[in-house]
Write a structure and sequence with these properties.
Elements: E1 33-34, E2 37-38, H1 39-79, E3 80-82, E4 88-92, E5 98-100, H2 105-112, H3 117-123, H4 130-137, H5 139-147, E6 150-153, E7 156-159, H6 163-168, H7 179-183, H8 187-190, E8 199-201, E9 204-208, E10 213-229, E11 232-245, H9 266-365, H10 373-383, H11 389-393, H12 404-422, H13 426-429
Antiparallel strand pairs: 1-2, 3-8, 4-5, 4-7, 6-7, 9-10, 10-11
Length: 430
């Protein structure tokens, strides 16, 4: 082993010669060897190995960059939402007042009504989904709005996206596109800052490159009253965080049975190409598909907490507003009538509560809908001389107001029939 040098040998060109024509005719070996291998061969193999290593390294680095970009695009798709609120045609504002084109009011009311009978009936079928039922039940309304360039989104009637907006957002199903348009597909999610007029950020996220873990964050309601702003109760806030492990693209290895310092032929390079295709296919079909599920699940989990806390806040807000209203009423009653005024006001509120409770029990027993409770409560108050007939009419729909007694008589008859059905005819025999 080691370098071998002798006074006799061949030149690098393979020719031998003697020094000073010495009698011994000992010759000098002008080539160097390592472990019996010519150094020039060693250098050649080393250079070849470095090249092959650099090619392998470059391919793996390119794959990792590609994976990072795809995952970043995916995260943007899930954490950014379309600014439908900037495209509103008709909606109910925070105070419950309808704003916009009243032409679509009937459609909007039906689409927003979770208890609308056709939707309830559809959802009762085995295997039914909210999306499928919505498209089926409102097929005609959806087609009518589409014909005018509108659609239903997030409880509002909004202006639909035009062709270029759809392309930028990657919504290209059914579109005929030029080569230039195809190159723009989905670019809003490559860099959302270039599409500020179309997108808003619903969640923030970071990615730890060392651990390949994404962190999703969103500030939401904590379900409690956080104070007042401009005379209105506002919600407190809390930060929700979820962690998602992202998929990694598998590395490409040296061909089986070969190392980096072996000379790779066409077969070995074909093997590298086959590995490249296989790892990318696996990343898209398995890795990225798994990322979609995990990131979506994390975002949906935060959304569920948000909705639950928002409901709690609304309940707390209504209770606080009711308490405020009660205090104001008591103050006004005291100012106008002293203690007697307070007693009278409290008596009236108790009677209203009794009317509402009785009306609720009555309606539910007869199979009526929840929106009829207030109507029956008003009739009971009306019969006791507490309301003007015109005030009751404002809340009436299908029930007769020209003869309130007849309306109650009909409902009593309905209750009787219902009880008779429940009892198997016993009440009818009494």
């Amino acid at each position: 082993g080691g370098f071998v040098s002798s006074l006799t040998g061949n030149t690098s060109g393979g020719q031998s010669y003697s020094i000073f024509n010495a009698a011994s005719q000992k010759k000098v070996e002008t080539s160097l060897k390592v472990d019996g291998k010519d150094i020039s061969t060693i250098f050649s193999n080393t250079a070849n190995g470095v090249y092959q290593y650099s090619q392998l390294l470059s391919t793996n680095e390119n794959n990792e960059r590609m994976a990072d970009k795809e995952q970043e695009k995916l995260l943007n798709q899930i954490t950014y939402g379309i600014k439908w609120e900037d495209r509103v045609v008709l909606k109910y504002n925070d105070n419950g007042v309808l704003e916009g084109n009243k032409e679509f009011q009937h459609i909007l009311n039906q689409m927003n009504d979770s208890k609308w009978k056709p939707m309830v009936d559809c959802m009762a079928k085995a295997g039914a989904t909210q999306d499928a039922c919505f498209k089926s039940v409102f097929k005609d309304s959806i087609a009518y709005m589409q014909g005018q360039g509108f659609e239903y989104q997030n409880g509002m009637i909004v202006r639909s996206l035009n062709k270029m907006e759809k392309i930028l957002l990657g919504q290209t199903t059914g579109l005929t596109m030029t080569a230039e348009e195809k190159a723009l597909t989905g670019t809003c999610y490559v860099d959302p800052t270039q599409c500020k007029s179309l997108l808003r950020q619903d969640y923030t996220y970071t990615v730890n490159k060392e651990t390949n873990v994404a962190t999703l964050t969103k500030s939401i309601s904590n379900g409690q009253i956080g104070g007042r702003r401009e005379g209105k109760y506002i919600s407190g806030t809390q930060t929700e965080t979820r962690y998602v492990s992202l998929a990694e693209v598998k590395p490409i290895m040296a061909p089986k049975g070969k190392d980096l310092f072996d000379s790779w032929g066409e077969e070995e390079w074909d093997n590298i190409g086959s590995q490249q295709n296989a790892v990318l296919k696996n990343f898209y079909d398995v890795g990225l598909a798994g990322d979609v599920k995990r990131i979506s699940a994390a975002a949906n989990d935060i959304s569920v907490v948000k909705e639950r806390n928002e409901k709690k806040f609304q309940e707390a807000k209504i209770a606080a507003e009711s308490a405020d209203s009660f205090i104001k009423d008591m103050i006004m009653a005291y100012i106008s009538g002293g203690v007697a005024g307070i007693k009278s006001s409290i008596k009236g509120k108790i009677e209203d509560q009794i009317n509402s409770s009785l009306a609720g029990a009555f309606i539910r027993a007869t199979g009526g809908s929840e929106d009829q409770i207030a109507f029956v409560s008003d009739i009971m108050s009306f019969m006791r001389g507490k309301m003007q007939e015109k005030q009751v009419k404002a809340r009436a729909n299908t029930m007769s107001m020209s003869n309130p007694l007849r309306s109650i008589e009909n409902m009593v008859s309905k209750t009787y029939n219902k009880l008779n059905q429940w009892s198997g005819g016993i009440t009818g025999a009494i």
